[in-house]
Amino acid sequence: MTDDEGSGLKPGTRLVTAGRHAKNRRGIVNPPVWRASTILFDSVAELRAGVRKPDDGLYYGRRGTPTQWSLAEALTELEPGAAGTVLYPSGVAAISAVLLSLLAPGDELLMVDSAYEPSRAICNGLLRRFGIETRFYDPAIGAGIADLIGDRTRVVFLESPGSLTFEVQDVPAIAAAARARGVTTVLDNTWATPLLFPALAHGVDISILACTKYIVGHSDVMMGSATAVPGHFEKLRRTSHALGQCVSPDDAYLAARGLRTLQLRLRQHEEGALAVARWLAEQPQVARVLHPALPDCPGHELWKRDFSGASGLFSIVLDGGDDAARAALIDGLDLFGIGFSWGGYESLALPVDPAGLRTATSWQAEGPAIRLHIGIEDPADLIADLGRGLARFESARG
Q: Does residue 198 carry a pLDDT above 50?
Protein backbone atom coordinates (compact mmCIF):
# COMPACT_ATOMS: atom_id res chain seq x y z
CA MET A 1 0.00 0.00 0.00
CA THR A 2 1.35 3.44 -0.87
CA ASP A 3 1.06 6.49 1.35
CA ASP A 4 -1.50 7.97 -1.07
CA GLU A 5 -3.62 4.83 -0.93
CA GLY A 6 -3.57 4.86 2.86
CA SER A 7 -4.21 8.58 3.30
CA GLY A 8 -8.00 8.24 3.62
CA LEU A 9 -7.97 5.45 6.17
CA LYS A 10 -9.45 5.85 9.65
CA PRO A 11 -6.87 6.00 12.50
CA GLY A 12 -7.70 2.51 13.76
CA THR A 13 -7.15 1.01 10.33
CA ARG A 14 -3.98 3.00 9.86
CA LEU A 15 -2.59 1.50 13.10
CA VAL A 16 -2.91 -1.95 11.53
CA THR A 17 -1.59 -1.13 8.08
CA ALA A 18 1.06 1.56 8.73
CA GLY A 19 4.64 0.54 8.04
CA ARG A 20 3.69 -2.93 6.83
CA HIS A 21 4.96 -2.36 3.31
CA ALA A 22 6.04 -5.32 1.20
CA LYS A 23 9.67 -4.17 1.18
CA ASN A 24 9.80 -4.42 4.98
CA ARG A 25 7.97 -7.70 5.58
CA ARG A 26 8.71 -9.85 2.51
CA GLY A 27 5.32 -11.60 2.68
CA ILE A 28 5.35 -12.07 6.45
CA VAL A 29 2.53 -10.42 8.43
CA ASN A 30 4.90 -8.70 10.87
CA PRO A 31 8.18 -7.28 9.53
CA PRO A 32 10.83 -9.71 10.84
CA VAL A 33 13.65 -8.85 13.22
CA TRP A 34 16.63 -7.93 11.04
CA ARG A 35 19.73 -7.82 13.24
CA ALA A 36 22.84 -6.33 11.71
CA SER A 37 25.96 -4.32 12.32
CA THR A 38 28.03 -4.91 9.17
CA ILE A 39 26.27 -4.76 5.82
CA LEU A 40 28.06 -6.51 2.96
CA PHE A 41 28.18 -5.05 -0.53
CA ASP A 42 28.68 -7.01 -3.74
CA SER A 43 31.26 -4.62 -5.16
CA VAL A 44 33.32 -1.51 -4.42
CA ALA A 45 31.03 0.42 -6.76
CA GLU A 46 27.97 -0.66 -4.77
CA LEU A 47 29.69 0.28 -1.51
CA ARG A 48 30.54 3.74 -2.87
CA ALA A 49 26.96 4.21 -4.03
CA GLY A 50 25.86 3.39 -0.50
CA VAL A 51 28.25 5.96 0.93
CA ARG A 52 26.74 8.62 -1.29
CA LYS A 53 23.18 7.79 -0.18
CA PRO A 54 23.41 6.02 3.19
CA ASP A 55 19.73 6.51 4.02
CA ASP A 56 18.41 4.93 0.85
CA GLY A 57 18.86 1.32 1.92
CA LEU A 58 20.98 -1.07 3.96
CA TYR A 59 24.28 0.65 4.72
CA TYR A 60 25.36 0.04 8.32
CA GLY A 61 23.50 -1.35 11.32
CA ARG A 62 23.39 1.99 13.09
CA ARG A 63 21.39 3.38 10.15
CA GLY A 64 18.72 0.75 10.64
CA THR A 65 17.23 -2.29 8.96
CA PRO A 66 13.70 -2.94 7.68
CA THR A 67 12.62 -3.68 11.26
CA GLN A 68 13.38 -0.15 12.47
CA TRP A 69 12.31 1.44 9.18
CA SER A 70 8.90 -0.21 9.41
CA LEU A 71 8.22 1.23 12.88
CA ALA A 72 9.46 4.69 11.89
CA GLU A 73 7.28 4.64 8.78
CA ALA A 74 4.26 3.54 10.81
CA LEU A 75 4.67 6.40 13.27
CA THR A 76 5.10 8.81 10.37
CA GLU A 77 1.88 7.61 8.76
CA LEU A 78 -0.01 8.37 11.98
CA GLU A 79 0.85 12.08 11.63
CA PRO A 80 -0.54 13.45 8.34
CA GLY A 81 1.88 15.98 6.89
CA ALA A 82 4.96 14.43 8.47
CA ALA A 83 8.17 14.00 6.49
CA GLY A 84 9.58 11.25 8.67
CA THR A 85 10.31 9.84 12.11
CA VAL A 86 13.57 9.25 13.96
CA LEU A 87 13.73 6.54 16.64
CA TYR A 88 15.69 6.91 19.88
CA PRO A 89 16.61 4.55 22.74
CA SER A 90 14.35 6.44 25.20
CA GLY A 91 11.96 9.37 25.40
CA VAL A 92 14.61 11.49 27.14
CA ALA A 93 17.05 10.69 24.33
CA ALA A 94 14.46 11.92 21.85
CA ILE A 95 13.95 15.18 23.76
CA SER A 96 17.66 15.92 24.10
CA ALA A 97 18.48 15.03 20.49
CA VAL A 98 15.64 17.17 19.13
CA LEU A 99 16.70 20.19 21.18
CA LEU A 100 20.34 19.75 20.19
CA SER A 101 19.32 19.65 16.53
CA LEU A 102 17.43 22.94 16.80
CA LEU A 103 19.47 25.06 19.24
CA ALA A 104 22.95 26.58 19.22
CA PRO A 105 24.98 28.59 21.75
CA GLY A 106 23.31 31.94 22.36
CA ASP A 107 19.82 30.69 21.45
CA GLU A 108 16.82 30.76 23.76
CA LEU A 109 14.32 28.00 24.47
CA LEU A 110 10.85 28.62 25.87
CA MET A 111 9.93 25.58 27.98
CA VAL A 112 6.50 24.97 29.52
CA ASP A 113 6.66 25.16 33.31
CA SER A 114 4.65 21.93 33.75
CA ALA A 115 7.18 19.88 31.79
CA TYR A 116 8.29 16.36 32.60
CA GLU A 117 11.10 16.58 35.17
CA PRO A 118 13.85 15.14 32.89
CA SER A 119 12.97 17.82 30.31
CA ARG A 120 13.70 20.48 32.93
CA ALA A 121 16.95 18.72 33.81
CA ILE A 122 18.06 18.84 30.16
CA CYS A 123 17.40 22.59 30.11
CA ASN A 124 19.15 23.32 33.40
CA GLY A 125 22.08 21.01 32.72
CA LEU A 126 23.04 19.99 29.21
CA LEU A 127 21.67 23.02 27.37
CA ARG A 128 23.01 25.49 29.92
CA ARG A 129 26.51 24.04 29.53
CA PHE A 130 26.22 24.69 25.80
CA GLY A 131 25.29 28.33 26.33
CA ILE A 132 21.60 27.87 25.55
CA GLU A 133 19.25 29.81 27.79
CA THR A 134 15.86 28.46 28.89
CA ARG A 135 12.90 30.52 30.03
CA PHE A 136 9.98 28.65 31.57
CA TYR A 137 6.46 29.84 30.81
CA ASP A 138 2.96 29.39 32.22
CA PRO A 139 1.23 26.42 30.53
CA ALA A 140 -1.98 28.50 30.33
CA ILE A 141 -0.34 31.30 28.34
CA GLY A 142 -1.94 30.42 24.98
CA ALA A 143 -1.45 33.05 22.28
CA GLY A 144 0.27 35.22 24.90
CA ILE A 145 3.42 33.26 24.14
CA ALA A 146 3.99 35.87 21.43
CA ASP A 147 4.97 38.36 24.15
CA LEU A 148 7.79 36.08 25.32
CA ILE A 149 9.30 35.39 21.91
CA GLY A 150 12.46 37.44 21.49
CA ASP A 151 15.18 37.81 18.89
CA ARG A 152 17.09 34.82 20.30
CA THR A 153 14.09 32.52 20.72
CA ARG A 154 14.36 29.51 18.45
CA VAL A 155 12.10 26.86 20.00
CA VAL A 156 8.89 26.69 22.03
CA PHE A 157 8.52 23.37 23.84
CA LEU A 158 5.05 22.17 24.88
CA GLU A 159 3.74 19.25 26.91
CA SER A 160 -0.02 18.92 26.84
CA PRO A 161 -1.36 17.84 29.18
CA GLY A 162 1.45 18.10 31.71
CA SER A 163 2.34 14.64 32.98
CA LEU A 164 2.07 15.54 36.69
CA THR A 165 -0.49 18.34 36.94
CA PHE A 166 -2.33 17.87 33.62
CA GLU A 167 -2.70 21.44 32.39
CA VAL A 168 -3.97 21.40 28.80
CA GLN A 169 -2.23 23.91 26.57
CA ASP A 170 -3.76 25.84 23.68
CA VAL A 171 -1.46 24.14 21.22
CA PRO A 172 -2.90 25.65 18.00
CA ALA A 173 -2.65 29.19 19.40
CA ILE A 174 0.92 28.71 20.60
CA ALA A 175 1.96 27.06 17.34
CA ALA A 176 0.44 29.88 15.29
CA ALA A 177 2.16 32.56 17.36
CA ALA A 178 5.51 30.78 17.07
CA ARG A 179 5.18 30.21 13.34
CA ALA A 180 4.45 33.89 12.77
CA ARG A 181 7.88 34.65 14.27
CA GLY A 182 9.73 31.81 12.55
CA VAL A 183 10.07 29.83 15.78
CA THR A 184 9.90 26.02 15.87
CA THR A 185 7.36 24.25 18.09
CA VAL A 186 8.07 20.89 19.74
CA LEU A 187 5.40 18.93 21.63
CA ASP A 188 5.79 16.04 24.03
CA ASN A 189 2.67 14.16 22.93
CA THR A 190 3.17 11.01 25.00
CA TRP A 191 -0.07 11.28 27.02
CA ALA A 192 -2.37 11.41 23.99
CA THR A 193 -0.32 9.80 21.20
CA PRO A 194 -1.16 10.78 17.61
CA LEU A 195 -4.30 8.67 17.90
CA LEU A 196 -5.98 11.10 20.32
CA PHE A 197 -4.13 14.27 19.30
CA PRO A 198 -2.52 14.49 15.83
CA ALA A 199 0.04 17.12 16.74
CA LEU A 200 1.22 18.17 13.29
CA ALA A 201 -2.37 18.73 12.17
CA HIS A 202 -2.67 21.21 15.07
CA GLY A 203 0.32 23.21 13.85
CA VAL A 204 3.23 21.58 15.72
CA ASP A 205 6.53 21.15 13.86
CA ILE A 206 7.93 18.17 15.81
CA SER A 207 5.99 15.65 17.90
CA ILE A 208 7.91 13.59 20.47
CA LEU A 209 6.69 10.34 22.00
CA ALA A 210 8.13 8.32 24.83
CA CYS A 211 7.23 5.13 22.99
CA THR A 212 8.14 3.34 26.22
CA LYS A 213 4.61 4.22 27.33
CA TYR A 214 1.51 3.58 25.21
CA ILE A 215 3.17 2.64 21.92
CA VAL A 216 4.97 -0.35 23.48
CA GLY A 217 2.17 -0.87 26.00
CA HIS A 218 3.75 -3.71 27.97
CA SER A 219 6.38 -2.05 30.21
CA ASP A 220 9.25 -4.00 28.67
CA VAL A 221 10.95 -1.68 26.15
CA MET A 222 12.62 1.73 26.34
CA MET A 223 12.16 3.85 23.22
CA GLY A 224 11.45 7.37 22.00
CA SER A 225 10.52 8.94 18.69
CA ALA A 226 10.36 12.31 17.00
CA THR A 227 8.09 12.88 14.01
CA ALA A 228 8.69 16.08 12.07
CA VAL A 229 7.45 18.22 9.21
CA PRO A 230 9.59 18.68 6.09
CA GLY A 231 12.76 20.62 6.75
CA HIS A 232 12.99 19.63 10.38
CA PHE A 233 13.06 15.89 9.80
CA GLU A 234 16.32 16.20 7.89
CA LYS A 235 17.88 18.16 10.77
CA LEU A 236 16.80 15.52 13.27
CA ARG A 237 18.21 12.70 11.19
CA ARG A 238 21.58 14.42 10.73
CA THR A 239 21.95 15.20 14.43
CA SER A 240 20.83 11.73 15.48
CA HIS A 241 23.39 10.10 13.20
CA ALA A 242 26.08 12.43 14.55
CA LEU A 243 25.15 11.43 18.12
CA GLY A 244 25.12 7.74 17.23
CA GLN A 245 21.49 7.34 18.28
CA CYS A 246 19.85 4.08 17.27
CA VAL A 247 17.46 1.45 18.61
CA SER A 248 17.76 -2.31 18.53
CA PRO A 249 15.68 -4.22 15.96
CA ASP A 250 14.31 -6.43 18.74
CA ASP A 251 12.96 -3.38 20.58
CA ALA A 252 11.58 -1.93 17.34
CA TYR A 253 9.77 -5.21 16.70
CA LEU A 254 8.15 -5.15 20.16
CA ALA A 255 7.16 -1.50 19.77
CA ALA A 256 5.59 -2.19 16.38
CA ARG A 257 3.67 -5.12 17.84
CA GLY A 258 2.34 -2.90 20.62
CA LEU A 259 1.37 -0.21 18.13
CA ARG A 260 -1.13 -2.50 16.40
CA THR A 261 -3.34 -2.71 19.50
CA LEU A 262 -2.96 0.93 20.58
CA GLN A 263 -6.55 1.92 19.83
CA LEU A 264 -8.02 -1.01 21.74
CA ARG A 265 -5.78 -0.44 24.74
CA LEU A 266 -6.36 3.31 24.86
CA ARG A 267 -10.11 2.77 24.85
CA GLN A 268 -9.78 0.48 27.85
CA HIS A 269 -7.38 2.84 29.62
CA GLU A 270 -9.77 5.75 29.03
CA GLU A 271 -12.85 3.87 30.18
CA GLY A 272 -11.19 2.57 33.33
CA ALA A 273 -9.50 5.87 34.20
CA LEU A 274 -12.72 7.84 33.85
CA ALA A 275 -14.59 5.37 36.06
CA VAL A 276 -11.91 5.60 38.73
CA ALA A 277 -11.51 9.38 38.40
CA ARG A 278 -15.24 10.02 38.74
CA TRP A 279 -15.41 7.80 41.80
CA LEU A 280 -12.42 9.52 43.38
CA ALA A 281 -13.98 12.94 42.77
CA GLU A 282 -16.81 11.95 45.11
CA GLN A 283 -14.60 10.79 47.98
CA PRO A 284 -14.23 13.13 50.98
CA GLN A 285 -10.51 12.37 51.32
CA VAL A 286 -9.86 13.73 47.79
CA ALA A 287 -9.72 17.49 47.31
CA ARG A 288 -9.25 17.50 43.54
CA VAL A 289 -8.98 15.13 40.59
CA LEU A 290 -6.69 16.40 37.82
CA HIS A 291 -8.08 14.67 34.74
CA PRO A 292 -8.58 16.79 31.59
CA ALA A 293 -11.75 14.91 30.59
CA LEU A 294 -13.53 15.96 33.78
CA PRO A 295 -15.57 19.17 33.31
CA ASP A 296 -14.22 20.87 36.45
CA CYS A 297 -10.56 20.28 35.54
CA PRO A 298 -8.73 23.42 34.30
CA GLY A 299 -8.18 23.12 30.56
CA HIS A 300 -11.17 20.83 30.02
CA GLU A 301 -12.62 23.04 27.28
CA LEU A 302 -9.35 22.92 25.35
CA TRP A 303 -9.22 19.15 25.78
CA LYS A 304 -12.80 18.86 24.55
CA ARG A 305 -12.02 21.03 21.52
CA ASP A 306 -8.74 19.41 20.44
CA PHE A 307 -8.59 15.81 21.68
CA SER A 308 -10.57 12.80 20.53
CA GLY A 309 -10.20 10.95 23.81
CA ALA A 310 -8.18 10.50 26.98
CA SER A 311 -5.57 8.06 28.17
CA GLY A 312 -5.17 6.41 31.56
CA LEU A 313 -2.93 8.89 33.40
CA PHE A 314 -4.16 11.51 35.88
CA SER A 315 -3.45 12.84 39.37
CA ILE A 316 -5.36 13.39 42.57
CA VAL A 317 -4.78 15.93 45.33
CA LEU A 318 -5.60 14.61 48.78
CA ASP A 319 -7.52 16.70 51.28
CA GLY A 320 -4.93 17.43 53.95
CA GLY A 321 -2.61 14.88 55.41
CA ASP A 322 1.13 14.60 54.98
CA ASP A 323 3.68 12.44 53.20
CA ALA A 324 3.35 9.66 55.77
CA ALA A 325 -0.42 9.49 55.31
CA ARG A 326 0.04 9.42 51.55
CA ALA A 327 2.57 6.60 51.89
CA ALA A 328 0.10 4.63 54.03
CA LEU A 329 -2.42 4.89 51.20
CA ILE A 330 0.02 3.82 48.48
CA ASP A 331 2.02 1.17 50.33
CA GLY A 332 -1.00 -1.01 51.07
CA LEU A 333 -2.41 -1.06 47.53
CA ASP A 334 -2.66 -4.55 46.07
CA LEU A 335 -3.38 -3.81 42.41
CA PHE A 336 -1.22 -0.71 41.89
CA GLY A 337 2.52 -0.98 41.46
CA ILE A 338 4.76 1.75 42.86
CA GLY A 339 7.11 2.90 40.13
CA PHE A 340 7.97 5.35 37.40
CA SER A 341 6.74 5.38 33.83
CA TRP A 342 3.21 4.46 32.72
CA GLY A 343 1.35 3.30 29.63
CA GLY A 344 1.62 -0.41 30.30
CA TYR A 345 -1.24 -2.79 30.96
CA GLU A 346 -0.77 -2.52 34.73
CA SER A 347 -1.93 0.19 37.13
CA LEU A 348 0.58 2.37 38.99
CA ALA A 349 0.51 4.82 41.89
CA LEU A 350 3.29 7.38 42.36
CA PRO A 351 3.68 10.11 44.99
CA VAL A 352 4.38 13.42 43.21
CA ASP A 353 5.43 16.81 44.58
CA PRO A 354 5.15 19.40 41.78
CA ALA A 355 5.89 22.50 43.89
CA GLY A 356 9.66 22.11 43.70
CA LEU A 357 9.56 21.78 39.92
CA ARG A 358 7.93 25.15 39.18
CA THR A 359 9.68 28.43 38.48
CA ALA A 360 7.35 30.46 36.24
CA THR A 361 4.21 29.44 38.10
CA SER A 362 3.44 28.18 41.59
CA TRP A 363 1.83 24.93 42.68
CA GLN A 364 -0.46 25.12 45.68
CA ALA A 365 -2.53 22.20 46.87
CA GLU A 366 -4.78 21.18 49.72
CA GLY A 367 -2.62 18.17 50.46
CA PRO A 368 -0.10 15.76 48.91
CA ALA A 369 -0.65 14.49 45.38
CA ILE A 370 -0.63 11.04 43.80
CA ARG A 371 -0.32 10.28 40.11
CA LEU A 372 -2.32 7.26 39.00
CA HIS A 373 -1.99 5.24 35.86
CA ILE A 374 -5.07 3.10 35.31
CA GLY A 375 -4.20 -0.06 33.45
CA ILE A 376 -6.58 -2.48 31.78
CA GLU A 377 -7.75 -4.24 34.97
CA ASP A 378 -11.45 -4.12 35.83
CA PRO A 379 -12.07 -0.62 37.27
CA ALA A 380 -14.35 -2.06 39.99
CA ASP A 381 -11.41 -3.94 41.46
CA LEU A 382 -9.20 -0.84 41.28
CA ILE A 383 -11.86 1.26 42.98
CA ALA A 384 -12.17 -1.26 45.80
CA ASP A 385 -8.39 -1.22 46.24
CA LEU A 386 -8.30 2.58 46.31
CA GLY A 387 -11.22 2.64 48.74
CA ARG A 388 -9.19 0.62 51.22
CA GLY A 389 -6.26 2.94 50.57
CA LEU A 390 -8.31 6.05 51.30
CA ALA A 391 -9.44 4.45 54.56
CA ARG A 392 -5.78 3.97 55.53
CA PHE A 393 -5.11 7.60 54.57
CA GLU A 394 -8.03 8.71 56.74
CA SER A 395 -6.64 6.84 59.73
CA ALA A 396 -3.11 8.11 59.21
CA ARG A 397 -4.28 11.67 58.63
CA GLY A 398 -5.95 11.70 62.03
A: yes
Q: Is the torsion defined by CA of 351, 355, 360, 362 positive or negative? A: positive
pLDDT in tens, 258-295: 999 999 999 999 999 999 999 999 999 999 999 999 99
Query: Which residue in the list 213, 326, 371, 392 is annotated as catalytic?
Result: 213
Q: Give the strands of the sheet with 369-373, arranged side by side.
A: 286-290, 313-318, 369-373, 347-352, 336-337
CB of 367 closer than 8 Å to CB of 321: yes
Distances (CA, A) of 139 to 11, 88, 114, 160, 177: 28, 27, 6, 8, 15
SS3 string, the chain, reads: CCHHHHCCCCHHHHHHHCCCCHHHHCCCCCCCCCCCCCCCCCCHHHHHHHHHCCCCCCCCHHHCCHHHHHHHHHHHHCCCCCCEEEEECCHHHHHHHHHHHHCCCCCEEEEECCCCHHHHHHHHHHHHHCCCEEEEECCCCHHHHHHCCCCCEEEEEEECCCCCCCCCCCHHHHHHHHHHCCCEEEEECCCCHHHHCCCHHHCCCEEEECCCCCCCCCCCCCCEEEEECCCHHHHHHHHHHHHCCCCCHHHHHHHHHHHHCHHHHHHHHHHHHHHHHHHHHCCCCEEEEECCCCCCCCCHHHHHHHCCCCCCEEEEEECCCCHHHHHHHHHCCCCEECCCCCCCCCEEEEEECHHHHCCCCCCCCCCCEEEEECCCCCHHHHHHHHHHHHHHHHHHHC
Question: Could you confirm whether 62 is annotated as catalytic?
Answer: yes
Q: Is 116 among the catalytic positions?
A: yes
Mean pLDDT in residue range 107-117: 96
Question: Is there a contact between 395 and 324 (Cβ–Cβ < 8 Å)?
Answer: no
**C-alpha to C-alpha distance for 286 and 347, rounded to whole angstroms:** 19
Query: Does residue 213 carry a catalytic annotation?
Result: yes
The yes-or-no answer on residue 188 being catalytic is yes
